[in-house]
Amino acid sequence: QYKKKMLWHNVENVIRQLKPSLFIGPDGLCLSTAIAEPLSIIFEKSFRTSSLPKLWSQATVIPIFKKGDPSLVENYRPISLCCGTCKAIDSIINQSIILHLETNNLLSNKQFGFRKKLSCNLQLLHCKNIWTTQLDQGKAIDAIYIDFCKVFDSVVHDKLLLKLKSYGISGQLHNWIETFLSHRQQMVKIGNKIEVSLRRSKQNYFEHANKPGRWLSYKLKKEKEKRLIHQLIDEKGIPQHEIEKKKDIILNYFQRLYKKEEINEDKIRTYLENTNDKTIGEGDKELLNKDITWSELKSAMENQCNNKSPGPDGIPVELYKATIDLVGPLMLEVFNEVLLAAKMPDSWREALIALIPKEDVDARYINNYRPISLLNADYKLFTSIIANRVKQVLNLYIHEDQNGFLPFRQIKNNLRTVIDVLEYYEAHPEKQFTLMFLDAEKAFDNLHWHFLIQKIYNMNLGTKFENIITTIYNTQQANILINGEQTGPLSIEKGVRQGCPLSPLLFIFALESLLTRIRQNSEIQGVRVKAEEYKLQAFADDMVFFLEDPMEKGHNLIKELEQYGSVAGLKINRNKTKLLTKNLTENQRKELEKTMGIQATKKVKYLGIWLTPHSKSLKENNYDKLLQQIKKDLESWNKLQLSLLGRIATIKMNILPKLLYLFQTIPIKLPKNFFDDINKVTLKFIWQGKKARISIKALQDAKSRGGLALPNWELYYWAANLLWLKDWVNLRNKRTLVLEGHDLQRGWHAFLWDVGKTKQAYFHRHLIRDSLLTNWKKICKKHYLKIPIWLSTMEAMVHPNNLDITKTTKYKDLLDPLGKLRTRQDLQEQGFKIDQWLYIQIHSRYKQDIKEFGIYSKLQHLDKILLGSNKKNISKFYKYLLEVELEQEIVKGNMIMWSRNIGRSITLTEWEKIWNRIIKITKSVAYKENMYKMLYRWHLSPSRLAKMNTNSSPKCWKCKNIEGTYFHMWWTCKEAQKYWQKIRKWLEEITKEQIEYKPEFFLLGISDKHFPKKTKYIIIHILTAARLAFAQCWKSSCLPTDQLVIQKICDCAEMDNLTIALKNKESSAFDNNWNAWYNWSSIIFKKVYYVFQGIWAEGILVQLN
């Protein structure tokens, strides 16, 4: 079998299976199937004579970082890049060996690695079956997991050859393998791209480790594993694992999905003509069609995110950003030519499609993946500019019940309306009601281009805009990515590409026709409260419809949806579309299911929130479930090697957003023990089950006040409550206030500041109103000692039915600068229409308020946020609440201890300088953490350990004579004094400055002397590196060696250099900051560093005695 001649077409198949770009070895060549036949002759001769070309014995080794500290060489996996020809013959030999071993059953059935039709998953299933069988029989199980050190690199060649011979592999094959294993050479490059890669990895760790961002996200989530598609189920229900079969499944599915459906264009025109859509003004039309300006291009460029996957051309947006002055004018010219001529580059029609699995679904089915288009950066820049214009126009055109992808529209508004509707029907049990949560099947991918384009023409949005949309949605193609490979070209004939900045806006623009028809259809009855009617809420394609009297009117909604689907492509996924009924009997519910063809359920997940007919179960279904998930996540993350700041960052990045989303969308009453539980599990995670070294208040305080910014959960909850209460204060969102206050007998402000005469029992029967008002009263006790001047006495006294809330006057309008009530004549002269009787009422209320509470004469800090813009409100509310909550904590215990140690009072200005300037100088989280640990006296001294353990000696570990208190260990110890005197000497020689020998300077960075900026920069970094070296030898009797300190400083300098380079800053910034250190170290320590293209090459360190 081994002696058979290798046919050239077998070689061709092997070459085709190889990925040329991954196997460029020492010869630098890629293989092509065109040379398969001559290669087969070479391979046959090599096999017959057991001779190999010299290049086949050579390989280039690339170290690939695994995990852990990137500065340690053992944390890298050596990957050998062989010549392509060597790789090809290796594959053929390997196939022969595997065939021999499998045919003769020479491999254990418990070996699952590198064997066809076997995998890690099957091995785990095999183990699970053994374990469950043992457990079922009542037997105990012990499992030992063994990790071998560099096992592939430790194989002894002689023993391997003997093993092969014992398995019957002999003759020519054995001789060839023996020749192949002898005289092998491997070269590890320590320069050029490999060196840059290693140093970039270290720089990434230096700048990004243990802080919120991609580094921490990968550490926690293992995103790469999620992206792999291990198997797909084909149309016959058979699981497929082979890559080619998976490609076929994907390609067949998306070819059907994106294939154009034949639609009568006259039918589209008729549908749109019968839809009473809004029109846009001439100003908006001009905005959509004007030439693109330089400021628009620059703004779009700045708003593009870095580190995003590029499109088919492989050009990242960072390249355009770096060369904007060069390519910007040309790009601007091209963009305007595209607008004018309605022609665009062919590359703009291409895309790579990445498949992202949806949550909580079976990832083996291809329909459960979301196709995200990776588009070229220049196309995304162009469409970003157009999208920014479209947003401004759509914000006026789209009804306020559509909250998706438009400025100042929030997802919480959808859920607020849904909960208010449920509460309304809780108060009206005599009315039958249902909510229909629509699931549109591949909504973005099914939108018909003809419908979109026809609607744009019908609305006369301008020639340039019409032409560019027609050009974009004319011809498109894509390649779909699966596990790093492409399926081949796919023609796209419908749908808007998810990943294009324009797509979501065009989708909601097209969808508005459907929503307008539903609003205007009198046969579809929604929730009617006073003069308002509520029929739907939408967040792009996530739509919920409100149906009163659903038994009679429900089919009309289905009919409207089907009509729109017949012209625009919307398809109802009846398996996932759900009904949530209220005030219906079981029989009526079943009848409704039959009538509408949609399942009614007791619980629905809408926009991430579990909803039930009775809102009282919101806490159990959402908050309690999330708390359990948080506990589970923190327990699993507890095993990761994260620093203190890394653990706090983990909580801020992964726990805070989830809780904050619930706080904003369902601000129901939460008991105090809920927040206690969250604090308990998060603190356990931060301290890893050990005793806390920093108080929770210090952890939660703002970084500008010396804290570590750990979230205060209750204050975030209050901030979210204030976000909802803002509508009650401002009285602006009329539709929300009418529905939420459907049964109010007095105005909202009567409840916000009640003097005890307004009956509130009915007000508290509404779940959300009850929670908001209860929490508002708690907030008022701390933050409002008097009545705020935004309070409207008119709105508070008059029944909501008899008052236009947009014309209410407030105390800030009624009072003069001295806080006195203006006369009626003064108010009338200022334009307020107040009759005599109303003025008497206002005057009476004013006297009562002044007497019982008092009224602020000007706006308070909280007032300014409540009355201000809608930008970053949660952050503003939280920051204010935190400052008030911790205003007594500004002087912390550690600050007092430091003052006692150094023998003088450290002023608050000096502390603020540390918090806001010194700590921010360095980019490294590790360096920042060292500074925080010094401030909070983190390290456990012998004296403190002796109090914790009576068997431990309180004597200093270094001098061994005096009690080792914290300050003694760091400063007063005679050994420590030697160390800091040496560091002082170095600093004076490096900076040519007189350095004061004070503990506050060396340990905290506080100095009365004003240093030049670059001098201060290098001093802070050298002192931090020196403290890190000292802390590394904390429990040792020896001081840090000069080599250790120098290495710490050198690492800092090198990483600082790379960080500056990667931030697109001039290299001179590095030279200015570190030139003094470079000059001094090269002379004193004879340690040579060469700076060449941002890379430091290190010579031999020889320390002088």
UniProtKB/TrEMBL annotation:
| Pfam families xrefs | RVT_1
Reverse transcriptase domain sequence ranges: 337-611
> Would you say which domain of life the source belongs to?
Eukaryota
Please give the InterPro entries that the UniProt record associates with this protein.
DNA/RNA_pol_sf, RT_dom
PANTHER family membership: REVERSE TRANSCRIPTASE DOMAIN-CONTAINING PROTEIN-RELATED (PTHR31635:SF196)
Its recorded name reads: Reverse transcriptase domain-containing protein
Annotated organism of origin: Pseudonaja textilis (Eastern brown snake)
Q: What is the lineage of its organism?
A: Eukaryota, Metazoa, Chordata, Craniata, Vertebrata
